[in-house]
Please model this.
Amino acid sequence: MQELADAAGVSIASVSRVFSGSNKVSEKTKAKVMELVKLSGFSPNETARTMAAGKSKLIAVILPDVENPFFSKLLSEIEEICVKNGYTMIFFNSRGDSEKEKDIVSKMIARQADGMLIGITHATSERISVLQSAKFPVVAITRAIKGLNSVGVNHKKGGILAADYLFEKHCENFFFFGQEDDEKFLGFRERLLERGVTENNIQIFGNQSWYFTDFDCAAKTMDDFMQKLQNYKKAGLFCINDLFAVQAISSAHRNKINVPERLSVVGFDNTILCNMVYPTLTSISQPLENIAEDSFELLSKKIKEGKEGVKQTENIVLSPSIIKRES
Model:
């Protein structure tokens, strides 16, 4: 910077103002300095600037399953918002591994990240305590998490929407593919009971961490399920996400179960997959753009509050909707 100042015939403070975008320097000086910058190939040392300013303009993003089109799209939205606001985003695919998440938090503290956005598919006390101990603000995304700042979707309401849809399709037996303590299933089950469906006609299968197991296992489980459907007149199936709902339709075809005549299927996330399968998939839609925007805004707010010594947890809950298609 001193060399640029000497070459331009101005003070080093003027060169600094040019780089910071200050309006306290003339357009003539700006043009002269920037022309010399181009000729010299100079670029500011971002690490030094981070140390001087006390902020890194770096945001860490941890998502559980980037192979899921929903999380891939969410990541793209977050990245675009970060870039627009002058932040660099660094991404990690945790696959739901608590130990990996701990390691990432430690590394990001060392890198002096300004904040972190993390997608948690199944909240546990262990993960929450790790994230609460981070030296920067953390915002959980896609679901509300007690004890953490979060921007989530009401998954229980999503289950209710799925239950109403399948009930109105005159299904007599109802199934959920996922975990029994999932809020989606809790809403699904409660709504069906309210509408007079008996406990015996509401069943669950695939009751384990299906987000993180291989699809061959899930395919076999689906095929076993389809074989049992031979004994039912009309069934309704609600899946934890579109990936498994699409797999269910594929399994139905293999086992000669007609969709939607014999089996109606509802997914969750309303991803690009919904229109890539036949029949097209009805799915519960999460307001993805709102999740990305609200998460970034909340994190920005918490970064500012942290500098002012303010510590207050906030939870934003968004509503899902149902996109009805052919399944």
